[in-house]
């Protein structure tokens, strides 16, 4: 039985900077995996390489046994991706974006139309489905991005900051969809800065710091008897740093 996502030695340099340094990560089938790390830790770079959006300098990523770079067609059919800062065709409506992407994937038009209508309704984008993407708010863009990731019924979802800029009502809807996806046998990897959210949703977690994984495994194992936030701060060394006050801000 293959794992949902297997990352081995993934490495990426930008000039002299090693953004991702030989990262290993095993996402078990059926798990809800959270990736946490400070700004610039390497989460987006790791996830982009893992799904075939960014070519690594070294290492491999396999999705249910399909190598993302050697066997991209099979790998990409199995995964739905919500990338960071997703570029959308701005002059299409939400519904047209879904139709366009569904047809590009070779799905029958009838199936695409049915699923698009359902996704727009569930994500409360019915009205917005008729508006151009250029008119969408950041949160609405996240939601239509999530709809495009779900459209082909993938077995693994890789979501970069899916809750960023999403209002609490929409966030609750998205959480229900994601929990349902996992309950139905799907696997999810998401990145987030929000520890409470990761604790609420995920059963596995990896802490990324300066391009390396400093802790990974089942949530309870990683955090022990502490909160994830305390564990995170202790792991990435924030507690030792002296926090300078901005004296000019106080009267
Ligand atoms: N295209 C690029 N060119 C140069 N440097 C880059 C590029 N993309 C990322 N980096 C650098 O690589 C490092 C990791 O960035 P990455 O976006 O993966 O971090 P992140 O953990 O996703 O951060 P955030 O939480 O802020 O989204 C950072 O130092 C970033 O500045």
UniProtKB/TrEMBL annotation:
It is a peripheral membrane protein. GO terms for biological process: response to antibiotic. It is found in: Cell membrane. It comes from Dactylosporangium aurantiacum. This is ABC transporter ATP-binding protein. The lineage of its organism: Bacteria, Bacillati, Actinomycetota, Actinomycetes, Micromonosporales. Coiled coil: none annotated. One of its GO terms (cellular component) is plasma membrane. GO terms for molecular function: ATP binding; ATP hydrolysis activity. Keywords: Antibiotic resistance, ATP-binding, Nucleotide-binding, Transport. Residues 5-235 form the ABC transporter domain.
């Amino acid at each position: 039985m293959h794992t949902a996502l297997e990352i081995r030695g993934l490495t990426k340099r930008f000039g002299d900077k090693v953004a991702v340094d030989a990262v290993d990560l095993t996402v078990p089938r059926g798990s809800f995996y959270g990736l946490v790390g400070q700004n610039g830790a390497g989460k987006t770079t790791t996830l982009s390489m893992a799904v075939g959006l960014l070519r690594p300098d070294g290492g491999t990523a396999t999705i249910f046994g399909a190598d993302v770079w050697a066997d991209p067609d099979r790998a990409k059919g199995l995964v739905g991706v919500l990338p960071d800062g997703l570029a959308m065709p701005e002059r299409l409506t939400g519904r047209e974006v879904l139709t366009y992407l569904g047809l590009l994937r070779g799905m029958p038009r009838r199936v695409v139309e049915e699923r698009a209508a359902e996704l727009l309704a569930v994500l409360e984008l019915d009205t917005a489905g008729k508006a151009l993407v250029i008119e969408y708010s950041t949160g609405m863009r996240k939601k239509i991005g999530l709809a495009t990731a779900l459209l082909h019924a993938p077995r693994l979802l890789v979501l970069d900051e899916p809750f960023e800029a999403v209002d609490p009502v929409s966030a609750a809807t998205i959480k229900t969809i994601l929990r349902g996806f996992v309950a139905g046998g799907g696997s999810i990897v998401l990145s987030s800065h929000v520890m409470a959210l990761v604790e609420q949703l995920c059963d596995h977690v990896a802490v990324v710091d300066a391009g390396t994984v400093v802790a990974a495994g089942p949530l309870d194992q990683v955090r022990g008897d502490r909160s994830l936030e305390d564990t995170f701060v202790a792991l990435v060394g924030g507690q030792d740093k002296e926090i300078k006050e901005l004296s000019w801000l106080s009267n």
